[in-house]
Amino acid sequence: MQARSALFDVYGDHLRTRGSEAPVAAVVRMLSPVGIAAPAVRTAISRMVSQGWLEPVHLQGGRGYRTTTRANRRLDETANRVYRRDLPDWDGHWQVVFVEPPAARADRTRLRADLAFVGYAELADNVWVSPFPRAELESVLDRSGARARTARADRFSSPPTGAWDLDGLRAGYEDWLGIADDLVQHHLSAHDDADEAAFAARFHLVHEWRKFLFTDPGLPDALLPPDWPGREAATLFASTATRLKPGTDRFVARCLGA
């Protein structure tokens, strides 16, 4: 687990409802049970500041950092997808995005990764598609310096769902159903303190589940087969995360000195 990714999980899953800020020492305490050492935390914080995700703030518990407006928007959008809140109804139309890619190769690579993360798939060169308009599109384009035109489509000669690797996604959800319980039990048994164990177990659960955001565009049920394993996997994730939340909240409160 990379420290930067772990920090996004901490701020998004634990600090977003607690003012979106924390002293550095508290963040270090939170990440210790999941194997992220203090130097790695501080290095990742520095990088996230330079990337515009965090900003310094003076707190009662010492020097700390809070998420920027841009980061809060991304964290809220990600949380909605992770916990499948406010799922929109599909009206049968598709959003098509015609991208004018940036000149720099690094910016093009970032753009492709960001578009995939927020739920688009590349239908043809520089033509991206999604069953829903994505609120994150403008910020994704701005971040890489790209421009785009959008259109709505009623139908295609062949289903756009083929732009996503649904066979691979199915296999991923089936694997998840086979390992989720073992993942949680492993981390519950690795810590003597019950609340710390709950935090570590839930942290790894959310971290692994969050990886589906890179591969699952959140297609509406009407476009998925009746036996789609993502439904069962989402139910298992939600029930397990809920069960672990009370102990997790107590541990976070301890780390924050609350």
From TrEMBL:
<dbReference type="Pfam" id="PF07848">
    <property type="entry name" value="PaaX"/>
</dbReference>
<feature type="domain" description="Transcriptional repressor PaaX-like central Cas2-like">
    <location>
        <begin position="89"/>
        <end position="147"/>
    </location>
</feature>
<dbReference type="InterPro" id="IPR012906">
    <property type="entry name" value="PaaX-like_N"/>
</dbReference>
<dbReference type="InterPro" id="IPR048846">
    <property type="entry name" value="PaaX-like_central"/>
</dbReference>
<dbReference type="InterPro" id="IPR011965">
    <property type="entry name" value="PaaX_trns_reg"/>
</dbReference>
<dbReference type="InterPro" id="IPR036388">
    <property type="entry name" value="WH-like_DNA-bd_sf"/>
</dbReference>
<dbReference type="GO" id="GO:0006351">
    <property type="term" value="P:DNA-templated transcription"/>
</dbReference>
<dbReference type="Pfam" id="PF08223">
    <property type="entry name" value="PaaX_C"/>
</dbReference>
<dbReference type="InterPro" id="IPR013225">
    <property type="entry name" value="PaaX_C"/>
</dbReference>
<dbReference type="Pfam" id="PF20803">
    <property type="entry name" value="PaaX_M"/>
</dbReference>
<feature type="domain" description="Transcriptional repressor PaaX-like C-terminal">
    <location>
        <begin position="164"/>
        <end position="253"/>
    </location>
</feature>
<feature type="domain" description="Transcriptional repressor PaaX-like N-terminal">
    <location>
        <begin position="3"/>
        <end position="58"/>
    </location>
</feature>
<protein>
    <submittedName>
        <fullName>PaaX family transcriptional regulator</fullName>
    </submittedName>
</protein>
